[in-house]
Each structure stands twice: as C-alpha cells, then as structure tokens.
Design brief:
The protein is an alpha/beta fold. The protein has a single domain, classed as TIM Barrel, CATH 3.20.20. It contains 13 helices and 14 strands. The strands form four sheets. The chain has an eight-stranded parallel beta barrel, surrounded by four helices. The chain has a two-stranded antiparallel sheet with strand order 1-14. Strands 7-9 form a two-stranded parallel ribbon. Helix 12 links the parallel strand 10 and strand 11. Bound molecules: beta-D-glucopyranose.
Length: 388
C-alpha cells in the first residue's frame, strides 16, 4: 500500500560537492601533483549556473568545500582574491535563500603543508586553526553550517594503509599521528568558530559504514563486526563528541562480515557502476546508532555511481523511506544531502564514475539533468515522498 511520508518542517534538502572534485584549475595542492583534476567541472566559474540548477531542483541547502590551497597558497600568505571569490559564492547562495554547508577540509592540502608531512606533522594543527580563523573572520557571517572535515578515515586509510591515495606511504604510526592531529585540529577549529559565533552549528562529516555479522549467531563474526564498527565509526565520534553541535555523516557502505577470508560477503543483489552494493536499510541502523549521541543529525552525503540513471530514483526513494522510519521512531534527522549535484572527479578513479544528479559533458562542460534529479526535486518541493 502506498503511503505519503512527510518530513519534519524546515528539513534541509540538498546536494554536496567538494572543491577539488569540481572547481577546476587547482594547481597548488598535493592532489594536483598526484592526479590532476584539470578543469574538472569548472564549478569555479560556473557556480551561478549550478546554483540555478539547485533552484530549479527546489533544493534549500548546498554543501561545498573551500580549497585551502587557494586561500593560503604559501605558508602564512592569504590570497584576498580567493577569499573574495568564496564570498561571492556564499552571497549567491544567500540571495537564493539556499542554506550553506561549508566544509573546511575535503582531503586536499596546500603543497607547502603536504611537503612537511601534512596531517601527520603536528604543526598542521596550528596551521589548520589559523586558516579556520581567517575563514571565520572573512566569511563566517555567511556560513549556516560548518563541517570541519570530510570523512577523516578515508584519506587516512587510503593514504597510509591501502596506499591508493597520497601520500601512498604504508605507515601505521603516521596514520595514528594523522588521526590524532586531525582530532586536535577539529577541536581548535570548533573553539575558534564558537568564539566568534556562539550559536554556530559545527560538526564533522564522518563516513559511517553499516557493519553486520553475516551469521547473527556466530560470536566470532559478531566480535569482528563490533571491532570494525568501533575503530571505523565510533572512536573518532567519541573523541570529538563534546566538540560537535550535530552529527554529520555520509553513508555508502554496508559490510557483512564473515569469519573466513575474504572477511566481507555482501549479497550484492544490486550494485552501482563501481561495484558498490546498494543497501538502503543500512542507513536506518546507522541512524539508530547515532541517535544515542542525542544531537541533531544531518546526512551529508549519500549517492551512487550510475551513468545510465538506472537505479538512482529507487536509490533515493528507498534510502529516504528508511530515513523516515528512523524519524518516526524519534531520531532527530534534520537534513539529507545527495552526493552529488553533478558528475565530478572521483579521486583515484578519475572522471569515469558518474555520481551526479546532473550529467556533465567534460568536453563542453554542459550540465544535463538526469531523470532522477526531477524525482528528487519533487520530494524537495513537497517535503514528502510516496513510499510503498
Ligand atoms: C567523499 C567524496 C566521494 C564520494 C564517492 C565520499 O567518500 O566524500 O569525495 O566522491 O564519497 O566516493
């Protein structure tokens, strides 16, 4: 039976992007040496056009990141023109009454900082604090929600363990330093933002995976799933718990744990273009877990690579149905941000994966809305969806 599911009043409906993946022309950061995103989507120049899309799609919020290497291309030298640029971006959102969710660090570091070890060097804490202070002073009045970091676990894991991201150095000690410095950096940034704006909403966008034992009765699988949950999801959150005003998280992965190798065994009934399992129910269990922190919750990323737009509509509907169930059961969810507004540079995988509500033609840079974008737009407009 069909049911109309109404979302709470004032719910934020949006989409997310990051600077390096979309802006283009970023030359002064560690990733540009490793894998150059070139002109990417040229969001740097096309942001007005993209914000027209947001309006057309009835989105009332937008998450993007500020590129640190543009703001501070040399240590201690801040570029006024680039600060001006982000001011214009924020003003454009304000003029359109679209709430801004601003990420201060989404994985790319200025070269001068990367060259001295990036986050594994403890000087990064004060450098990040100084950069945050500049942003707060110059742009703070235009920011609605702050995200200090995007998914710290991914650059840590991919950079220092799996080694498909820079700095590609397998080193557990550096990984630990990286995480500890990030935690300290976050706490300082939180205090800096709150010193100027006591009512500010500051958080982190954590990547929260849903780990479950493949066999609910198997103690070993239960234990492994618990350990993974603890180290991947819980530890960081627990560390910053007193320094966040809301819980922000990104949901992409469900991992069924089996004892014998290869340890993961998802049913993979539906997978995205890059082989990631589509498992909407997982977001419900994550929300139930996060509710224990007793803070408002924002889903800051959720999406899939789907060039043909075969699954995106169902993907959005099914995730939102599970989110709604959690809300009905009392979980305080305040917003949903789809990843992503447009196709973009998918890090080590390049431009092939297509995560966008809008398709990007990388030759002409033209944007074309996929059918699922209109479906999502209807939900944003009605603040409700039909489930069943
Ligand atoms: C990241 C994005 C990335 C997306 C899809 C998230 O982990 O924040 O930068 O594009 O997942 O992989």
């Amino acid at each position: 039976m069909e049911k109309i599911l109404k979302f709470p009043q004032g719910f934020l409906w949006g989409s997310s992007i990051s600077a390096y993946q979309t802006e283009g022309g970023i030359k002064n950061c560690d990733w540009s040496n490793f894998k150059d995103a070139g002109i990417a989507c040229d969001f740097y120049h096309k942001y007005e056009e993209d914000f027209d899309l947001l309006e057309k799609l009835n989105q009332n919020a937008f998450r993007f990141s500020i590129e640190w290497s543009r703001i501070e291309p040399e240590e201690g030298k801040f570029d006024k023109n680039e600060i001006e640029h982000y001011k214009k971006v924020l003003l454009s959102l304000k003029k359109r009454k679209i709430k801004s969710v601003v990420t201060l660090w989404h994985w790319t570091l200025p070269l001068w900082l990367a060259n001295i070890g990036g986050w594994s060097n403890k000087k990064s804490i004060d450098f990040f604090a100084r950069y945050t202070k500049i942003i707060v002073e110059e742009l703070g009045d235009l920011v609605d929600i702050w995200v200090t970091f995007a998914e710290p676990i991914i650059p840590l894991f991919n950079g220092y363990i799996k080694c498909n991201f820079i700095p590609q150095k397998r080193n557990i000690f550096k990984a630990i330093k990286f995480l500890n410095n990030l935690i300290k950096g976050h706490k300082k940034a939180y205090q800096i933002i709150h010193a100027k704006y006591s009512e500010a909403q500051v958080g982190v966008a954590g990547l929260i995976n849903f780990f479950e034992p493949a066999r609910k009765w198997c103690p070993l699988e239960i234990f492994i799933a618990f350990l993974l949950h603890y180290f991947w999801n819980h530890r960081f959150l627990k560390n910053v718990e007193k320094f966040i005003d809301y819980i922000g998280f990104d949901y992409y992965f469900h991992d069924r744990i089996v004892f014998y190798p290869p340890f993961l065994k998802n049913s993979n009934k539906k997978i995205s273009d890059i082989g990631w399992e589509i498992y909407p129910e997982g977001i419900y269990w994550i929300l139930k877990y996060l509710a224990k922190f007793r803070k408002p919750i924002y889903i800051l990323e959720n999406g899939l690579a789907d060039a043909q737009d075969k699954f995106r509509k169902d993907f959005i509907r099914d995730h939102l149905c599970w989110i709604h169930l959690a809300i009905e059961e009392g979980v305080d969810v305040r917003g949903y941000f789809h990843w992503s507004l447009m196709d973009n540079f998918e890090w080590d995988k390049g431009f092939e994966p297509r995560f966008g509500l809008a398709e990007v033609d990388y030759k002409t840079l033209e944007r074309k809305l996929r059918p699922s974008a209109f479906y999502y737009a209807q939900i944003c407009k009605e603040n409700s969806l039909i489930c069943g």
